[in-house]
Amino acid sequence: MSTNRLYELRCRECGKTWGNVPRSFCEDCFSPLEVAYDYDSLKKIARRENLARRDFNMWRYSELLPLPENFTGPNAVAARRWLARANSPRNGA
Predict the structure, then answer these.
(1) Distance CA 89, CA 84 (A)
(2) CA distance 69 to 6
(3) Sheet with 33-37, edge to edge strand ranges
(4) How far is Cα 19 from Cα 25, in angstroms, rounded to an integer?
């Protein structure tokens, strides 16, 4: 794993690495890909204190998600609006 990446996708069966690309299976052996983390680098940026301050949604763990470099998630206002719509009684759920 290169030093500037915190994670990459790796084939569960053959071990081939695919970098950080939107792919779910290995094109060589058709096995599922898993996220392989560089834990030493991740320890430097993912802090328990930072996680504790964030909202309880999937973006709380953004450092751990296999996202493209320089990806910015939705802002907090947009996330709250989406959640309000999802929980709306007129949503049909």
Answers:
(1) 10
(2) 10
(3) 17-19, 7-11, 33-37
(4) 13
